[in-house]
Amino acid sequence: MGKKIYLAVIYIITLICVTIGVLGNNFNIAPFNAMTFGSAGKKVEYTKKFDSVSNIDIDLAVADVEIVKGTEFSVTYKGREKLSPSIEMEGSIIKISQNDSINIIGLRDVDGKLIVTVPDNDSSCNLLLKANVGDISIDDVNLNKIAAEVDMGNFEVNNASFKDGEIDVNMGNAEVNNCTFNNINASVDMGNAEVKIKGSKEYNLNLSVDLGTIGVNGTNYSGSYNNNASTSNKISIDVDMGNISVSQ
């Protein structure tokens, strides 16, 4: 019970801080705008194209990220100039990163979007993603592995194909919908985790929640759930504060 109270207090404090930041930074509403200092610069947009990619390595302080299907590997940034990321090729790895010294608390208008296209005929690429603030969406792509760490924002994968998924979300929801995969290992501190399984493939389920409920194909459980299925395919989800839903 002590841990549940602690998590609830942390959640409330975090929610208040986020609300103040949104009102001051994005909407410029007094008195919250007194906590901000300046603009993130003019809006820019540019695209870079790449060949023969094995890994996409993304490390961002603030931006929404979209991974979508295309005819070639490319990266497009749309957002403020001061938050413009470095986009470079190192060997066969696309490296995308923002300046470590960026302090988004002191900036207004920090909206930005990174759009990464992956060719439909290439399923060997690994996606490695770290995001401090921003929503992540991965739609209709074929990948080998997805490894994502999100501090504040929602993470969503739709109609994708991959072998293994490692998902870690601190505050936000994690969703995997209508995807083909072998294994998922997900951890959510504050938020909901949802997996909608595509097809009839069987999975070994290992689900646990501290403060919330577990739903498996419409039936609710509390604490933990294991189905002990005789298969090497696994779905492991651990949620501190929030709900888990797995359905097929």
List keywords for this structure.
single chain; 248 residues; mainly beta; 11-stranded mixed β-sheet; 10-stranded mixed β-sheet; 1 helix; 23 strands; 10% helix
Fold topology:
Blueprint: H1 2-26, E1 38-39, E2 43-50, E3 55-62, E4 64-70, E5 73-80, E6 86-90, E7 93-97, E8 107-108, E9 112-119, E10 126-133, E11 136-139, E12 145-152, E13 155-158, E14 164-171, E15 174-179, E16 183-190, E17 193-197, E18 204-211, E19 214-216, E20 219-221, E21 224-226, E22 234-241, E23 244-247
Parallel strand pairs: 1-8, 3-7, 3-10, 4-9, 4-11, 10-12, 11-13, 12-14, 13-15, 14-16, 15-17, 16-22, 17-23, 18-22, 19-23
Antiparallel strand pairs: 2-5, 5-9, 6-7, 18-21, 19-20
What does this structure look like?
The protein has 248 residues and is mostly beta strands. It has 1 helix and 23 strands. It has one helix at 2-26, and strands at residues 38-39, 43-50, 55-62, 64-70, 73-80, 86-90, 93-97, 107-108, 112-119, 126-133, 136-139, 145-152, 155-158, 164-171, 174-179, 183-190, 193-197, 204-211, 214-216, 219-221, 224-226, 234-241, 244-247. The chain has an 11-stranded mixed beta sheet, with no helix packed on it. Residues 22-38 have low confidence and may be disordered.
